[in-house]
Design brief:
Strand order of the largest sheet: 5-4-3-6-7
Low-confidence stretches: none
Number of helices: 4
Largest sheet: 5 strands, antiparallel
Distance between the termini: 59 Å
Order of helices and strands: HEEHEEEHHEE
Mean pLDDT: 84
Shape: rod-shaped
Strand content: 25-35%
Number of strands: 7
Structural class: alpha+beta
Helix content: 25-40%
Number of domains: 2
């Protein structure tokens, strides 16, 4: 029964904290439901939906894109090899601004291209071998793309690169 119905049938006002009254089939007494109970149920439902959406880490297809930038600023800045992970969610630069050495190592181990060991001193050798093996005709002469999958964590950050 609503608040207005209670006022009409019983002739009294309900307490402000009570939203409505209800009675199950076969019961004789009316039970009260407060606004706090309604909001608590709504909050619990929202929390469970958000938890279900964020519970799983997402695995999405991606492309590892390696290219050589020949024309940097004054032929000094931004010149050299670059490695990106491209997904529908966006592009993630692995060796620009915040170096993601862990992800670069995962890419190198996923696509070894006959180059071992994996360190910074062998980067040039790995990049050229990767470009020769996975060359993609495009605007740049030295351009390569290989397809794989990547895993995102709950917050949407790139966590790891997998086959």
């Amino acid at each position: 029964m609503s608040r207005d119905g209670y006022k009409f049938w019983i002739g009294k006002e309900l307490d402000r904290s009570i939203a409505y009254l209800y009675k199950d089939i076969g019961d004789k007494d009316w039970r009260t439901v407060t606004y706090k109970e309604i909001f608590a149920r709504k909050k619990a439902k929202q929390d469970s939906h958000i938890y279900e959406k964020r519970r799983h880490e997402k695995v999405r297809p991606c492309a590892v894109w390696v290219f050589y930038n020949e024309h940097g600023i004054n032929d000094i800045f931004f010149k050299g090899w670059w490695i990106y992970v491209r997904t529908l969610a966006g592009d993630f630069a692995l060796n620009f601004r915040n170096m993601r050495k862990d992800l670069i190592m995962q890419v190198k181990q996923l696509f070894p291209c006959g180059c071992l060991p994996f360190d910074d001193t062998y980067d040039e050798i790995w990049f050229t071998a990767f470009e020769k093996r996975y060359h993609y005709p495009g605007k740049r002469q030295r351009n390569a793309i290989a397809f794989c999958h990547c895993r995102f964590n709950k917050q949407g950050y790139l966590k790891e690169i997998i086959r």
